[in-house]
Amino acid sequence: MVRFKHRYLVATIAAASQERIAELGPSEILAMLRESIEANFGDFGSGSTSQSLQVRSFDRASGVCVIRAGRESHRMVRASLTLLSGTKDVRLSVTVQAVAGCDRTLKAAAVEAYARGYRRAGICDDAAAALLQRQRQLLEAWQ
């Protein structure tokens, strides 16, 4: 039996104000992403991505989101992320930073994106180091 292979997308989500990002959670991001896939790719897109699409983590401080998608449909998910504009009251800008196929490259890309997000948010070095250590532990716990 062949195992199901995934791709992980590391994306940065930015909003006009940080308070709007604080209102978002993984379930809201997943719902917006599914709506975007449905709007842009129709029933085919939503059917081919529904089984494997999952928001693995979302850090509100840095705005970094890790999304799991199937290997065959990750390009569709990436396009839908790029075309995602937010909800009625929250305007978002989404940038896909990296696409990874294995845990090793995912961890490297995610830690780099977290560090960039903490610098952009203006978090001091000591607090950013503690947050990065926590994110590394969360990434290790996925195994």
Descriptive report:
This protein is flat. Strands 2-3-1-4 form a four-stranded antiparallel beta sheet, sandwiched between helices. The model has no long low-confidence stretch (mean pLDDT 83). Helix 2 (26-49) packs across helix 3. The chain is α+β, with helices and mostly antiparallel strands. The longest helix has 24 residues, at 26-49. Strand 2 (54-59) and strand 3 form a beta hairpin. It has a single domain, classed as 2-Layer Sandwich (Alpha-Beta Plaits). It contains five helices and four strands, in the order βααββαβαα.
Uncertain stretches of 5 or more adjacent residues? none
Q: Write down the overall geometry.
A: flat
What class do helices, strands and sheet pairing give? alpha+beta
- What is the string of SSEs from the N terminus onward? EHHEEHEHH
CATH fold label: Alpha-Beta Plaits
Count of separate DSSP helical elements? 5
Radius of gyration (CA) equals: 15 Å
Q: What value does the average pLDDT take?
A: 83
The CATH architecture assignment turns out to be 2-Layer Sandwich
Q: Strand order within the widest sheet?
A: 2-3-1-4
Quaternary assembly: single chain
Topology:
Blueprint: E1 6-15, H1 18-23, H2 26-49, E2 54-59, E3 64-70, H3 74-83, E4 92-100, H4 103-121, H5 125-141
Antiparallel strand pairs: 1-3, 1-4, 2-3
Task: Give the gist of this structure.
This protein is α+β, with helices and mostly antiparallel strands and 143 residues long.
Task: State the main characteristics.
143 residues; Alpha-Beta Plaits; four-stranded antiparallel β-sheet; 5 helices
